[in-house]
Amino acid sequence: MPAAGDRTPPPSPHSPPDPALGPELEDRLRRVLDGEVRFDHYTRRLFSRDASMYAITPLGVAFPRNADEVQAAVQVAGELGVPIVPRGAGTSLAGQTVGAGLVLDLSRHLDSIVEIDPEARTAVVEPGVVQDQLNRAAAPHGLMFGPDTSTSDRATIGGMIGNNSAGSGSLRHGMTIDHVRGLDVVLSDASRTHFAPLDESERLRRAASPTLDGLIYRQLPLLMQEYEESIRENTPDFWRRACGYRLERLLDPATRFDLARFVVGSEGTLAIVTGARVDLVPRPAHTVIAVGHFSSVAHAVAATEDALACDPAAVELLDRTILDLSLRRIEYAALGSLLTGEPGALLFVTFSGDDRDRLSGSLQHLTALWRAHQHGYHTLTAETPREQRALLTVRKAGLGLLMAASEGSRRPLAFVEDTAVDPVHLADYTRRFQAVLDRHGLTAGFYGHCSVGCLHIRPFVDLTQPAQVATMREVAEEVRDLVTEYGGVNSSEHGDGLARSEFNPLVFGAELYEAMRRTKQLFDPRGLLNPGKIVDAPPMTEHLRDVSLPPAVPVRTRLDFEVVGGMRGAADRCMNIGQCRKSGTGAMCPSYMATHEEEHSTRGRANALVTALSEPDPRRALGDERLHGILDLCLMCKACKSECPLGVDMAALKAETLSHHHDLHGTPFRSRLFGAIRLLQRIGSATAPLSNLPGRSRPLRRLLERWPGITAARPLPTFARENLVRWYRRRTPHRHLRRVVPPSAPAAAPMGELTFLADSFTTYTEPGIGRSAIELLEYSGWRVRLVHQGCCGRASLSKGLLDDAKRASARLSEALAASGAPDAPITGCEPSCLMTLRDEHLSLHPGSARARAVAGRVRQLEELLSEAVDSGRLRLRDTGRPVGRRLLYQGHCHQKAEVGTAATLALLRRIPGAEVVELDAGCCGMAGSFGFETEHYELSMKVGEDRLLPAVRAEPAQTLIVASGVSCRQQIQHGTGRRAWHPVELIRAVAEPS
Fold this sequence. Notes:
Elements: H1 22-32, E1 37-38, H2 41-46, E2 60-62, H3 67-80, E3 84-87, E4 102-105, E5 113-117, E6 122-125, H4 131-138, E7 143-144, H5 157-163, H6 170-173, E8 180-186, E9 192-195, H7 200-207, H8 212-234, H9 259-262, E10 272-279, E11 281-282, E12 286-294, H10 297-302, H11 304-308, E13 314-319, H12 320-327, E14 345-353, H13 356-372, E15 378-382, H14 385-396, H15 398-403, E16 410-412, H16 426-439, E17 444-449, E18 454-462, H17 466-485, H18 497-500, H19 504-508, H20 510-523, H21 545-548, H22 566-572, H23 590-595, H24 602-613, H25 618-621, H26 625-632, H27 639-643, H28 650-665, H29 669-675, H30 677-686, H31 698-706, H32 724-730, H33 737-740, E19 753-757, H34 760-764, H35 767-779, E20 783-787, H36 794-798, H37 802-817, E21 826-828, H38 831-838, H39 840-844, H40 849-857, H41 861-871, E22 874-876, E23 886-890, H42 893-898, H43 902-908, E24 915-918, H44 937-946, H45 948-953, E25 960-963, H46 966-976, E26 980-981, H47 983-990, E27 991-993
Parallel strand pairs: 2-4, 3-4, 19-20, 19-21, 23-24, 23-25, 25-26
Antiparallel strand pairs: 1-2, 5-6, 6-10, 7-11, 8-9, 8-10, 12-14, 12-15, 13-14, 13-17, 16-18, 17-18, 22-27
């Protein structure tokens, strides 16, 4: 162990461990861990990336179940001299959680909230607890965790401690370092200890121990004494700092021996956290927001001083780049209706507290100040949660929205995105920062925390171009010098990692930096804990992820991925920001919400596909069974297409991959069976009721469970003898039109002709829904033409039978194109089938004018009916089943991804006296055939039990459950015993022609 005066450098952290150690390390870890140990090629590549621009492939990954297993893993790795990289959600932006040794994923199992003490306002948590998870548990006590990161739905407390995270509320609540009371840690020699504030007598007692813990408590005061002058003179004065080691805190009498707070922000280089006691703060009763509209970023920044004079909780900036991106996305488009004009930047000023009148007064005061000083041209105020929802959604999505502007390998990168200066200098600093970018010909997106002088500025750079890499370094160096000139910090909440650690000798000066190196040596003499971060770092231009990828070998695909640079380009759009790892809200990603496994997130699957598509023979790699296993639990819900800020379409990628798997290994019989669902249902309807008998026979169900693997636990659909096609043919054509067309009108329907898509489910198993829809359309003045010539191909797509899907879609497109005037609407009841016309048909037939024409004619049924109600063509009575009832609505995943649920909700709200509530329940878990498959049934139910099924059970009997999708209705009926109605059934119950 080096003495206080020993300046011998540790082993070089830049040399990766010997790959030959991998098998022995894996074998020894398996002996001592109950948690998973994975050293396969795909897992290693999945954990080679975080949300930064870096990639380093580790030797392997372990998933310890408790603190004992963390200790055991550190012991084994230490004996073999293998570095250790602790990791939470893997959302770090500077490369903190990638490294060449053993990755310890502390998010999968160490995710328990041990205790919440409302009186002491503290919580005891394991490192894998997610910030929102803690906040939900603390909310009943009127408490929350103070640091409010934009990634609160996936950021772990352990990661926030490692990074010293802050967020929008730091003006009031400071940083994570200000909220840590005590830490349970594993040290570099695999010993365990507890860090907390100590008085001098306790420090001396601990210092007497012949352990690494004792050595730290003996030597650290001597080290501080030796470097005290440099620490006091060279430490940046700015308080919001997430770079370097916080040595100045050891000179503060109030925190002198508080090693718990000292290791906060050390990025896992000093100790590995296995438990934490953290402070909680009171949750404000009310929040109000003012949104200033400005012509430019410069004008918005100039208005910050007035905002700070009003004592806000936060002042946040979004620039025009991010606003434009938000307006293109379904998830965030609601913001557009709230804005006035076309602002070049928005300033979100938040006030929070318990006195609503005082908060309203703050809004008025701010508005008056801005008006008096001629800041901005409009101020929007939002005082209720409903008014604020769209604003907050976009404000927290700044990073993801900016990343969505990536074009191939030209991405907005995080390397100068976290500097901060005193807000009094922010306007001048921002102007000079922009001048640096202009000088180098770079564009950038601006967002961040004006209240604390931190702007997240991400220049667009293509790291596959050597000249661009050189430009990136030049800009990083110039910005480093600029922020130092203003007395600011190089990182204010995102940390050093690989992006900024190289610059720490210049940022802190040689002597203070040496003190940091000596501190690292004291805690970690062998340099095994996350080496290369904070001190002794490699150049920032090493380990760049885009540079490390070999050129993509062209792969012939059946779906069209050319707009995003081919199939690998489509997968490599993922920048690992981890929004697919969220829980408790949204639909993405249902399999991750159920398993908490990285490989079952959209991010994990995207990285696995990038790995396969980077092989010398990518076609063969797409047939790999390990890759097939990673993609297997993808429900193809398409939530990632809308909720992933980068729009990674895993449903399309899985379908394409399955087709290549079939090419190499043959197509399973069950896939053929489910792919031919329309034919099966047509036969089932023709032979009903006999065809329904097998579903009631236990021996036959058990046989089907064994082969071809259709679970006996779930009821099979019931075939209807009087299907929709038969009903349509036998009825008096357009008999309802005779009641709605006045004598003076032309003989044709007043609205003209409309094409109704007879999907497989509405046609053969739930024809009553189709009948209701057609009758409503005719009440509304449409002449309805039923098109039933084949399947849209949705079922074949889900099984990777893309050639079958292409043929089926071509036949259906031909029938639909011939089914009326070029502008005649095409509609239907089943969202997944209707949306397939707008999405996959275009990908199956790129460049097809007919496919584009059909897609352009698609209208949601709910839109057409709402228009009819509003125009008076369709009247809704104030008597009938849904009138005055509470309606709980579950939207279909494909509907949410493609067009959203606004049209359906608007139609339901036209029912007299109805209270319509939309569930935020994510995917139902059925996903077509997925929930019928034996090996997937348990996961299907687990997904449903996440939020949907408990929410339905919690509703009183008089509440009507409403769901647009057939799968959702099946899952709700099976999981709760309650019927779910299609929206048109309820409208039909109260509708009559005008």
